[in-house]
Prior knowledge:
It is built from one helix and five strands; from the N terminus they run E-E-E-E-E-H. The protein is mainly beta and 95 residues long.
Amino acid sequence: MASLQGYVDRRVLLVLQDGRAIVGVLAGFDQKSNVVLSESKERVYSMEEGVEEIPLGLYLVKGDMIALIGEIDDAIDQAVDLSSIRAEPIPPIRY
């Protein structure tokens, strides 16, 4: 995935096939789209408690688990109060 080169050293959001949402700085990737994130956090969505961020640190994600990768606008992301957001967790992908 040569298109990932433009995301290196930028904050990205990964949505995984099991429904998890991981935010972190893209530190690297390989030819199989395996991704290394630094300063990563898992965002856990809930209808009762808002969004909880769980620190993960340096995190490796297998390429075949990634459903979506997108760059995060830091200014917008920091302006959002995650504790006020209520959302159902993303369901896992079913084949």
